[in-house]
From TrEMBL:
Protein's name according to its UniProt entry: SAP domain-containing protein
SMART domains from the UniProt entry: SAP (SM00513)
Organism in which the protein naturally occurs: Ooceraea biroi (Clonal raider ant)
Biased composition (Polar residues): 70-86
Region: Disordered, residue numbers: 65-86
Ranges where the SAP domain occurs: 3-37
Length: 254
């Protein structure tokens, strides 16, 4: 990840963790971090990989792909399922998380399957074996329920799984969930803001409307009115204005 890929909010968090000033625009924040430590971006990337299991899995795939790209071989052939332990179905199982039939996880899991297939040039048989080896609970019961599933191509098998497990909420439901997310008593404004943005990304919401929606989620009418009068243009301005405020009482809007 490049330094400019981080949001202003993330950069300010990195600075606070190091007891550095959080003032200035994005370029100032990046420069301040680089002056603090030339290796700061490597450290932050490694930390995010450790904290995020999904990112860790994808990073393992990337590293293995890089090793294969830069390792001399006796022939010009591309890596295949027979190229060694890491390219075997057994070796790749450790790079793919299990899927138990959770509807909210199918799309991400399918992307991992396709990434492994494309990175290691797996043929259809190897891909199908890899898929079936990582199914658990409801997903495995579904796969075992029809003998025909075992002979489907990997592409068709993923399509059938999508029909069964990829039933995400409608846009209307997602938008209602987004609009109903309020800033809760005892919760920091930054926690509320991050959660609100994650919900917004699922719809998505236009960038120029985000700040208004975030303000709408503030239950205190006086604070809402003050925020609107400020006419905030940047999210970091809104966060700075609210970061030291703690809500008390009910989260219901006044």
């Amino acid at each position: 990840m490049n330094p400019t890929d981080y949001s202003v909010v993330q950069l300010r968090e990195f600075l606070r963790a190091r007891n550095l000033s959080v003032s200035g625009v994005k370029t100032d924040l990046i420069q301040r971090l680089e002056e603090y430590s030339p290796n700061v971006w490597t450290e932050l990337r490694q930390r995010s990989i450790i904290e995020d299991p999904n990112e860790r899995e994808l990073e393992l795939v990337r590293r293995e792909a890089e090793l294969r790209t830069h390792t001399p071989t006796t022939s010009a052939r591309s890596p295949t399922i027979n190229d060694g332990e890491i390219s075997s179905t057994k070796g790749l199982k450790d790079l793919l998380c299990e899927f138990d039939g959770s509807r909210s996880e199918f799309r991400r899991w399918k992307q991992q399957v396709e990434l492994l297939r494309d990175t290691y040039h797996l043929d259809d048989n190897a891909t199908r074996v890899l898929i079936s080896s990582r199914l658990k609970r409801k997903a495995l019961n579904w796969f075992d329920s029809k003998p025909e599933y075992i002979v489907l191509s990997a592409t068709n098998l993923l399509e059938e799984m999508g029909r069964m497990f990829d039933h995400r909420p409608s846009k209307l439901t997602l938008k209602k969930e987004f609009e109903q997310r309020m800033w809760q008593p005892g919760e920091s404004f930054l926690e509320y803001y991050h959660d609100k943005i994650i919900l917004a990304n699922r719809i998505p919401i236009a960038n120029d409307e985000i700040i208004d929606y975030v303000i709408d989620g503030v239950p205190n009418s006086r604070l809402r009115d003050q925020a609107r009068l400020q006419r905030f243009q940047e999210a970091n301005e809104l966060i700075e204005a609210f970061e030291k405020i703690t809500l008390k009482g009910s989260s219901k809007p006044e």
